[in-house]
Amino acid sequence: MIYRYSPRFFSQLRRAMTAASRGPYPRLSAWARQTRDLVRDVIVAANAVGIDEARRRALLLHIDHRDISMETILATIRYHAAEEYPYLLRHESSQNLLALHATNLNDRYFVLQLTRTEALQVEPLISRLEALRSHLDNVPDE
């Protein structure tokens, strides 16, 4: 009799394990992965127009009474998407989603400042920055 139910049992067990490995916030996790990919696209576009890592480090923006380089901004956003957000999404806490949204708000502000920088008003870089900004503006609700 148990043989009759075992295929269904293993099918359901496999489905449950797959759902558990995705975590409790699959849309936010996918959004964070896409954020990381968009930052990579911005770096590739910057390299294509001659703004390599050294120039990105030298390109300083004066934001909120401090100087911050383009490279630091992109590295910060990439770190948040690759490390901070997945950590926050894996560990259940009442404040984790709030922390994710607050961090994203800072990242959005930095990207907005990058899009307003005259030295970066060149295609395809500006369109990649705009795509990143638009993506950061649309955090999925879960």
Report on the structure:
The protein is mainly α and 142 residues long. It has one domain (22-137). It contains six helices and two strands, in the order αααββααα. It has helices at 2-22, 26-48, 53-58, 70-90, 96-115, 125-137, and strands spanning 60-63, 66-69. It has a two-stranded antiparallel ribbon with strand order 1-2. β1 (60-63) and β2 form a beta hairpin. The radius of gyration is 20 Å and the shape is elongated. The N and C termini lie far apart (41 Å). The mean pLDDT is 89.
Biggest sheet overview: 2 strands, antiparallel
In angstroms, what is the radius of gyration?
20 Å
What is the N-to-C succession of helices and strands? HHHEEHHH
In terms of quaternary structure, what is this?
single chain
Q: What do the pLDDT scores average to?
A: 89
Descriptive tags:
mainly alpha, two-stranded antiparallel ribbon, 142 residues
Secondary-structure topology with pairs:
Blueprint: H1 2-22, H2 26-48, H3 53-58, E1 60-63, E2 66-69, H4 70-90, H5 96-115, H6 125-137
Antiparallel strand pairs: 1-2
Helix pairs in contact: 2-4, 2-6, 4-5, 5-6
Provide a short characterization of the protein structure:
The chain is mainly alpha-helical and 142 residues long. The chain has one domain. Helix content is 73%, strand content 6%.
